[in-house]
Design brief:
The chain is globular and about 75 Å long. Helix content is about 35%, strand content about 20%. The chain has 19 helices and 24 strands. It has two domains: about 55-305 and about 420-490, TIM Barrel; about 305-420, no CATH class. The longest helix has 18 residues, at about 245-260. Helix 8 (about 245-260) packs parallel to helix 9 and helix 12 packs across helix 14. Helix 8 (about 245-260) links the parallel strand 10 and strand 11.
Length: about 575
Amino acid sequence: MSYDLVIKNGSVIDGSGAPAFHADLGIVDGKIAMIGRISEKSAETIDAEGHVVAPGFVDAHTHMDAQVFWDPIGSCSCYHGITSAVMGNCGFTLAPCAKENAELAIRNLERAEDISPLAMEAGIDWTWETYPEYLNAVAAHPKGINYAGYIGHSALRTYVMGERAFTEQATEDELAAMCRNVQEAVRAGAIGFSTSRIHQLFTNEPVASSVAEWSEVRAIVNAMSDTGAGIFELAGEQTYRDPDLKDDYFGRQLQLAVESGVPCTWGLISAKTEPQDWRAYLELLDDVAAAGGRMFAQVHTRALNSLVSFESHTPFDSWDHWREIRTLPLDEQMVKLRDPTIKAKLVDIATDPGGKSFPNHWGAMVSQPPNWEKVRIMDTVDGEHRRMSEVAKERGVAPAELMIDLALEHDLKLFFRTSAANEDDGDVLAMMRHPHTVVTFSDSGAHVGQIMDASMQTHLLSHWVRDKEAFTLEEAVRMVSFEPATRWGLHDRGLLRMGLAADVVVFDPETVGANMPTVEHDLPAGEMRLKQTARGIKTTVVNGQVLLRDNEHTGALPGQILRGPLARSVK
């Protein structure tokens, strides 16, 4: 037998959780054709000596819906072993929506997910109206990794209701139309239906889905259930530490999961403002399982960090004195920041704004003056990183002055990070270990100027496996391959088995990890984003073709659209 690609001499971790074993992997026509000792000829051979050969990783919480049209390889997810991504989370999609109404869909996305409207306008050739047409457009577009997608509630509402979606409840006829659209989308291959009950526009008014009453959500999910397929993904409600609100919210979730029979999922984090709240959500997962429903949480591998720098954004960009400086080219900013008089003015107002409020308008994550106790100096990619408050005290300066001084010492390229959630590693570990959670919550494609969590899978391997020894390699690989693939119904992915799709990642367990993020202006219209590559990944294979070699693109674009079971059964 002749093979298209053979991966030889590797330590195979097949995704099932079973112990690693030494074997070769033979690939033909995009499928795994042999796992064992291979001596036959191959068009291409990869020597994986000293490396792990694992299934490609699956990231089931992304917002790549727009980026897929201008980024052929799916960065930064692809750099971290991701071969399949689920987009359309939190109710935010680009379909259904006619081209002439694109502004409505973009309005939902630009703050809630911090995706540049200029990049979307310049980078998208809007050729669809319905969600099935959107899937066909993604299918036809050259891409490096595989994509599945939800139909999103916000786009659905604005498609059916127009501007009224942002302020009013749906009529009976409009709700019926939304239900039909979701059923049509799921039959055409949508992975499910997603919504948000919490996100806001730049006006601080709710996005379209957040206006809807729960009865609307319930009707749509039950209509999806009638098709016999689909997953319900939810960005949940704020219960404001009110036990009655929480009980009501949890009761509605449990009822919907049981009555619909639909798998339900949402993201889970810990927060210092409510330090034990996450445990109640884990109890909800147990309660739903006991009642016969299906519900699982998406969890992260580390703190959720907002990154700021003078190269990208600072919390003071819109403040008096600062805004005039921040509009200048970086080399001119450095000259101004070194001027003692100018620096004193910047430090003074940053330290005491005199009761003034200077809201930022570049995204949803960082819009308040920094709490310097929580801001850390990110001078390395790994590590605890020192608190700004501590270093400022040591130097005898105000934290804002320290921020300027440190930035200048690094030619304005230094990052400062603030953890918004998951600050306690013990909480993170407990959430990852729960039987009803899945490690997948990167938000890739969103918040690209503020957060960089596409590396959460490589962080699992470097921090939790290699450094902390909290998981074995076999456990960790299963957590980011087989488990998300199974939960989202991607049954030909996430395992190395003969006959399954040949999505493979080859990595060095001794060196795998994330590199330091960089600031790039490579989005359409020259818009900015954070970029983070990885180290220790030798080869990424998608559908039998080498996409990345030492994290450099080979030119291949083997990605596919991964349609839900109803569309697959039609074929």
